[in-house]
Design brief:
The complex is a heterotrimer of chains A (284), B (341) and C (343). Chain A has 284 residues and is an all-alpha fold. Chain A contains 13 helices and no strands. Chain C has a single domain, classed as 3-Layer(aba) Sandwich (Rossmann fold). The chains are: A mainly alpha (284), B alpha/beta (341), C alpha/beta (343).
Chain lengths: 284, 341, 343
Amino acid sequence: MTLTAAVTPARVRRARLFRLPVTLIAGGIILLISLFLGIFPWLVAPYDPTAFDYNALLGPPSPAHLLGADSFGRDVLSRVIYAYGLDLQIAVFATVPAFIVGSLVGALVGYAGNVVEAVFGRIVDAIITFPFLVLVIAIVAVLGPGLNNMYVAVFILDWVFYARLVSAEVRVQKRLDYADAGRVMGYRPMRIILRHLLPNSISPAIVYLMTDMALAILLGSSLGYLGLGAQPPAAEWGVQIADGKNFMNTAWWIGVFPGIAIVVTGLGFSLLGDGLAELLRTKK
Amino acid sequence: MPSAATATAPALSVRNLTTTFSTPAGRVAAVDSVSFDVMPGEVLGLVGESGSGKSVTLRSIMRLVHAPGEVTGSAHWQGRDLLTLNERDLRKVRGGEIAMIFQEPMTALNPVLPVGLQIEENLHAHTTLDRAGRDRRARELMDLVGIPEAGRRLHDYPHQFSGGMRQRAMIAISLASNPRLLLADEPTTALDVTIQDQILKLILELKRELGMSVVFVTHDLGVVAATCDRLAVMYAGRIVETGPVSTVFAEPRHAYTRGLLGSVPQSGAERTMLLSIEGTPPSLAAIPPGCAFNPRCSFATDICRTERPALLEIAPTHLVACHHHDRVAAAGSPVAEVAAP
Amino acid sequence: MNTDVLISAEAVTKEFRLPHSFGRRLAGQPPLAVHALNGVSFELHRGETLGIVGESGCGKSTLARCLVRLLDCDDGKVMFEGKDIATLAGADRRAFNRRVQMIFQDPYSSLNPRMTVRQVLAEALSVHRMRPRVEIPHRIAELLDLVRLPADAADRYPHEFSGGQRQRIGIARALAVEPEVLVADELVSALDVSVQAQVVNLLLQLQEQLQLTVVFVAHDLRLVRHISHRVAVMYLGRIVEIGPTEQLFSAPRHPYTRALLDAAPELNPGHRSTRVAARGELPSPIHLPKGCAFNTRCPFAFDRCFVERPELTDRGSLHEAACHLTEFGIPSAVPLAEDAPAP
């Protein structure tokens, strides 16, 4: 007695792919463009970002310099484009290590439960009570300015958020029958945690990662503005805004366009995060 | 259509009830041209598995189906069509003349109001009793449904009752204004078997005492055998067979009914293979052409794949929608011995 | 029948502590607990199907989990082939897991939503080294065939299957490690009636084919009667009656078993009664009644029932019941037990 499989036909499965949330597509497009600019800036940027043009010092937007020029005569458009690479790098390096380590710790804590979770909860409380930016600045001030130190500072604080998200989800998942099935199968706890529970608990962390990347760019730019992050003459949006702060009345374009780039890229991450959240929600 | 030979008029008469929903896959019919009658004082069982449309049928009759669902057809009650009644008259009928009880009393009862208050709300809306009268009636009802210490329990909240007691409380609320028709949507499915037994017997007793008709939605044919006078079997939103319980059990005329009867284990045939129906019910968005059951039917022929069978009366009050009902009848009933109730 | 005892439970006891409320702490009282199992003892013989039936709160699911060691007993022991399973560790424990498997009730949470059927089965096969790497795809196809699923099911995800099919996948997963004992915890309760029949038929066939020993936990009396060689009836954490299926159902020796039978709706419209099978409600497992747990609802309870808890005692030919009324239910010239005065 064989039964015909009343299983979703391939045709229907493919049709579902085109029903992706709008936010996901919009965010995806913005980020794909950003990624392209980040990897191949020379294809788009008209000038070298460090090239001085003494004829256009503080020059307004013109055919030669579409977004104007800064106090050194550097082309604002080119600098904004070249900054993509660096700022996207910041977005990734400042968040992904925390995501990886935090998720792993969170999964272990969530599975262990009881005392371990209680202790962990107190650590989390302690860390998140402090204002994030202030702590980061303090740590960087101690370690010295520069992007690498910023990455360290952020990592020390950021992993907690991921750990909390993942441990909460693991706590729910471990009660489900498939986790028990794994135990009845005689699988070791590590296998159950990593192979079974973690993939099913990671969605909230992934969605948060998107938002976190947007925040990381803001953070990097803030630190760059304060002179604690990327150092001049690097093309980084925060640094550019710092350059432009003295000229807000006379040459507003120096600070405003990098600001717009931050907003748009941050928006891209945000939309992608929203879209992912919706996609993952409906998939359940 | 039911025979005109019946002397008494039906209490509830549903004709061509169709409920559709718009889904990403298009317009889907959860209930498709459903017609049946409920006679005064009888218990009609509406039987089907998940996705058969039985619960949606009840909700459609009571106009509890919200957009994007659309309901067409008619449901005549006491000479008026429920589906076209204006809001004010409908409110009078709902809870007053027609009452409904649900499967999950915890979600059907308001968790933040004491049970006594919920009974009194019903009385207030549908009777002209004064405060004292309502209080007395509420106590009577709690006694009627077998809740001990009625006076004290009136002030309790739903979560303070056990599953069976909550179901009794829900019955008390729904019976407050002496309805003539009770629509019961799987009221005992979530209960333990001994509690289910108590609730079923209670419903039957109340039906006798109050002269109500009952439409009893269930998936359990054993419950049908124990409580119903007639049954209507639903599949993929359509009625495939209706008739008196003992007749249908002794001589099922639709392959699905026969399959359902065979799926229930009976005493005397232990550890033998159950008569099972191959395959699974179709998704409502992809109902096969012709007879909806044809891919799973061992009696199916070409006509079944192209022409949808109409619900025909093959004997007084026994209707079936099948091109080959004779062959199904000839195959015999899987139920060992059936005596009339 | 082979009387080789595979599993034996001896006075298994399990309780679940409730959070210790402040009031009780102040009063110096211990925290309240749900007494899920209160001294359960039975033997499981090789090759048989033992049905465990009861209503909510009877502890049957807890018992099922204790048998596969998903839960540890607070008191008493579960012996597998003469060894206490609580003492097994490491490789021995894994060997035990291999030989005693479980299938779960909920088809929607018992499969990892992010693993394909192939991944699920391959994992089971490789962790227990059931087959060398190259033979795994072939074995997966065999397993799918065994549970009557099409071969292309292997690369699909659980959400693409119906409830009945998911239960089959769960069965395939359990069978992948070639167990000797299958504990089925409410295997078909969440399925439609017609699908239940399919899965039950499959289980009957597999048992024949693979000589499995099955513990079938369910609340549906008709199903348990259909599939089991022996049945144990549980109430509030105890076995109240245990014996060969037909004997137990045609002549129950415990008032609760009789009540369950009377309450279960049969497919016979002619056989209707207005008398309620059992009055009253299930007592809370937090506050167990003193004496026999059924005394709050039993129509035959007398003074001894409120003081002394009855133990399982012999009623002839492998049939035991825990009731002070040792004569209850004897199918003989004695008039209806209900009319007879209490001893």
